Amino acid sequence: MLRTSKTMAKKLFGKLGSHFLESVRFFGGVFMLGVDCLRELFKPPFYFHLTIEQMFLIGVRSFLLVSVTALATGSVMALQFGYGLEKFGGKLYVPKVLSLAFVREMGPVFTSLLVAARIGAGITAEVGSMNVTQQIDAIRALGTSPIKKIVIPRLLATLITLPLLTVFANFIGIFGGMLVSVKELGTTPDYFFTKAIEALRMNDFITGLIKTIVFAVFIALTACYRGMKTTGGTRGVGDSTTWVVVTTNIFIMIADFFLTKLFIIIAPYNK
């Protein structure tokens, strides 16, 4: 019995140690990939057309998905806040609560999660397929840097489009909340937007956008790093895609807490 317990303990600690080493290796690899991107970002040649192409694939093609999600989320939040606060006589605070919650948290986080699921998976599958079929090795053989031609365009495109998508999501979500408030709660559009504008400060928008920048860097670098390390044919591409989606979503949720705590320390909301 004692020998069996020792064996199980060794296996458990062995797995934990293995996962820890894999995590350290992953974060170190992503960090070094980011350093390489900074090193080669300002060196010619510059592939502006590839960046614009990725901006279209990441931004324009994600707009409909983000818009529908933001509209539905804003509408549901208005219903929940409206009928919930009505019990305490606080229905008139719905515009302020909804706008603050959406700009600070719901807009940046939901948009980043959607982009991580759609774009992170797409980048990983594309780059992973290139690695499996040895296209990345061919790029190196031609004297071209895979980082400049593959990683940097996707990183820049994600950095540009994710904050823009978040801005659109904020306005669309608040607009959806206004529609529901007018229809279900009996408020007027003028009252809703007046109270929303009174509640919001520039600091609220800035903190939300800073979050999306952090999320964008992690999403793009993680997807490219995992794609360039993919092996095992089509099955390996599928495994990498699933792994990236799960990892980026977990990172977004955990990082959001620490970033929110940091912003509260630096610039408290009640000031």
Describe what is shown at a glance.
The protein has about 270 residues and is mostly helical.
What does this protein look like?
It is a single chain. The protein has helices at 2-41, 48-86, 94-132, 135-141, 146-185, 189-199, 202-228, 233-266. It has 271 residues and is mostly helical. It has one domain. The termini are far apart. The relative contact order is 0.15.
Summary keywords:
271 residues; mainly alpha; 8 helices; 0% strand
Q: Compute the separation of the termini in Å.
A: 62 Å
Helix content: over 70%
Tally of DSSP β-strands: 0
| Tertiary shape | globular
State Rg: 22 Å
Number of domains: 1
Mean pLDDT: 86
* Share of residues in strands: under 5%
Order of helices and strands: HHHHHHHH
